[in-house]
Design brief:
7-stranded mixed sheet; lipid metabolism; 676 residues; 21% strand; Rossmann fold; Luciferase, domain 3; alpha/beta
Length: 676
């Protein structure tokens, strides 16, 4: 517009000039000496013409500036996150296109392939720092090669076999994982907290016939070793020798094993949908379920850090257990994708956290909400903001802890990620809005179909219309989050019984024949597109960063002789993330409640996070119209002895018993003085 206005003004000036001279235009161009003379005597006219030109130019420029300013203001008022959304989505789409190219060309590149690329590119760069020792990309590659050769020659493992891995956080977790992957085996990550019955169930569900166990966990197998051996499961320990003749040692065989890579054909993948891992998650069926993790899911998770803006220069601190998808798929996979460095910790320590960050120049850390709360509860020091941490990636961070964390430790960008291990939907809060678990917008909805539907908490079921279809909630209202199963968002389900997979699906949700993954989470989406977690429904709640299956706990408690009926649920505990376990119990006729016996039973058969913290004795168990146990009112009443008329008990490790929950103990728990 500016150029057009300027040229038009010059043309107008030329016309006025020739009209005033009353000379044909042709004469003007044919008689240059005449033109020059005229030019010398028409300076005022020319100045006036140029003034007109400049005025028109400035007018056009003003219109453009006003238009640009209006667009800018409109965008800031109505679409404040437009450009950040667009740039973030552009990265997501670009990565998705790369995965689609893998499908079309049958040239599948897995996380292991990416690791081998990084070994060639940056062999001497630190990959894992653990307990003060540095392991380069080449170091991990060579040790995993040794293990792969042992697995082939000594353990007789073959491509397609499933192998269970029971290890705490350590570099050998990665070496064993990669060694098995190089042989072409799928790997089942076992939760190190699970007990005998659940552990045996894990082998049956994923079909593993080999177990690799860490050196510090061998003794934990004493109670089930005979059962494993009777099921023809071979056990290998990361030791030079074992006292059990039936348990094979690995470390002594590594010394003579070759560092040469095994044939690449063993781990070559032909489809992104091929299962590569099994990660166990607690659900409504009681015992752990083996979520099928395909190469596609692994690659998507590995892009998380990159999507949030991480680079190969970052140092990533992981204290979460590697048997969880957050640490293994996002943490380790994301480090490999970037070619960055991973600082690995065996267990989270609030007192050592910031010292470790300063010592290793950590720039990114992984978290769960409880971890950040523990850090905020530490004594304040002058070094709280002395570190290089710029980003945290995780989930479950409550708004109050989020604000306190940033106020105390600096403006660290907290990037919330929402998604279950087996789920087909992921939200990412790339904006950093406090309290939100993720971000959605028009572009996101075009790619990933999800809906929030009305849910009756009392009846514990979705609300249906007269035609039997679910009803969507309005913006800002709470609803059950459902994610449509499609080619873009497939649901791979669980290993074992197909019923487990089918139970997580809802069919005929809005139209006949559709299928949605039921997240089991009550969420809300505000008018700006931010997603907020509200609560969980069904038979699962989270405590200490773990999913607790109420059905599993119910089955274990039901084995106690004095318990006739039990209803397990989660209650909010002041100062803690998630929900603490509570069990409402009916004592069998002719028996009395025995706190010591119950304590011994839960400690022996349940992991720490799944043990009920509180017991409520009832005479009658409330049920719904469909004879389901009623949890809603129990959850609402909580464990306050001044509001609950039934006898209440609390788990006490010092007295090794469930003791009466008094007002004094309740106040101590509320004040954070009583450790749970």
């Amino acid at each position: 517009l500016i150029v057009f206005g300027f040229l038009t003004s010059l043309l107008l000036s030329a016309v006025l000039y020739h009209c005033r001279q009353n000379v044909p235009a042709a004469s003007h161009y044919l008689l240059p000496e005449y033109s020059l003379a005229t030019f010398q005597c028409d300076i005022p006219l020319l100045s006036w013409s140029l003034a007109v030109s400049m005025t028109l130019c400035l007018g056009c420029l003003s219109v453009l500036v006003a238009l640009a300013l209006s667009v800018y203001v409109l965008q800031k008022l109505c679409f404040p996150y437009f450009w950040r959304d667009l740039l973030f989505l552009q990265k997501v789409v670009r990565y998705g296109v790369k995965l689609e190219v893998f499908k079309l060309t049958s040239s599948v590149r897995t996380v292991l392939d990416r690791f081998l690329q990084q070994v060639q590119r940056i062999p001497d760069k630190p990959f894992v720092i653990y307990d003060g020792n540095v392991h380069t990309y080449r170091d991990i590659d060579r040790r995993s090669n040794r293990l792969a050769n042992v697995f082939l020659e000594k353990a007789n493992l073959r491509k397609g076999d499933c192998v269970a891995l029971l290890m705490n956080n350590e570099p050998d977790f990665l070496c064993v994982w990669f060694g098995l992957a190089k042989v072409g085996c799928s790997v089942a990550f076992l939760n190190t907290n699970i007990k005998s019955k659940s552990l045996l169930h894990c082998f049956n569900s994923c079909g593993a016939k080999t177990l690799i166990v860490g050196s510090d966990l061998v003794e934990d197998l004493d109670g089930i070793l005979n059962s494993l051996l009777s099921d023809n499961i071979q056990v290998w320990a990361m030791r030079s020798w074992t006292k059990h003749t039936e348990v094979h040692s690995l470390l002594d065989k590594l010394e003579s094993a070759s560092e040469k890579p095994v044939p690449a054909a063993l781990h070559a993948a032909t489809s992104l949908k091929t299962p590569t891992l099994y990660i166990f998650t607690s659900g409504t069926t009681g015992l752990p379920k083996a979520a099928v993790i395909s190469h596609l899911q692994s690659l998507k998770a590995a892009a998380g850090f990159w999507a949030f803006g991480a680079t190969e220069d970052d140092v990533i601190y992981v204290t979460l257990p590697l048997y969880h998808s957050a640490a293994s798929l996002i943490g380790v996979g994301g480090t490999i994708e970037l070619g960055a460095t991973l600082v690995l910790k065996k267990k989270f320590s609030a007192s050592q956290f910031w010292n470790d960050c300063r010592k290793h120049d950590v720039t990114i850390f992984q978290y769960i909400g409880e971890l950040c709360r523990y850090l905020c509860n530490q004594t304040k020091t002058e070094l709280d903001k002395v570190h290089k941490v710029r980003m945290g990636v995780g989930n479950g961070l409550h708004q109050d802890v989020w604000q306190e964390f940033q106020s105390r430790f600096g403006k660290i960008k907290m990037c919330e990620v929402y998604g279950s291990t087996e789920g087909n939907l992921c939200f990412m809060n790339h904006i950093g809005k406090i309290g939100s678990v993720g971000r959605s917008n028009f572009f996101y909805r075009l790619l990933f179909k999800y809906d929030l539907v009305k849910y009756d908490i009392v009846k514990d079921e979705p609300v249906k219309d007269q035609y039997g279809f679910c009803r969507r909630v309005d913006k800002g209202k709470m609803g059950l989050l459902l994610s449509k199963v499609s080619a873009i968002s497939p649901f791979f389900g669980y290993a074992g019984s197909k019923e487990l997979t089918e139970k997580k699906l809802m069919r005929n949700v809005f139209v006949k024949g559709d299928a949605y993954f039921n997240t089991g989470d009550l969420m809300a989406e505000d008018h700006e597109g931010f997603i907020f977690f509200r609560d969980r429904v069904g038979d699962t709640f989270r405590w200490k960063g773990e999913n607790v299956s109420t059905t599993e706990v119910t089955e274990i408690l039901g084995l106690v002789d004095f318990i006739q009926e039990v209803n397990v649920y989660g209650v909010q505990v002041p100062g803690h993330e998630g929900r603490g376990g509570m069990a409402s119990i009916i004592v069998r006729s002719g028996f009395i409640f025995d706190g010591k016996k119950l304590f011994e039973h839960v400690v022996r058969d349940l992991p720490g996070y799944a043990r009920p913290l509180f017991i409520r004795l009832q005479e009658v168990m409330e049920t719904t119209s469909t004879f389901k146990q009623q949890k809603f009112h129990l959850v609402q009443s909580g464990f306050n002895p001044s509001k609950v008329v039934d006898p209440l008990y609390v788990l006490d490790y010092k007295q090794k018993s469930y003791i009466p929950l008094t007002d004094t103990i309740y106040q101590s728990i509320s004040a954070g003085e009583h450790k749970l």
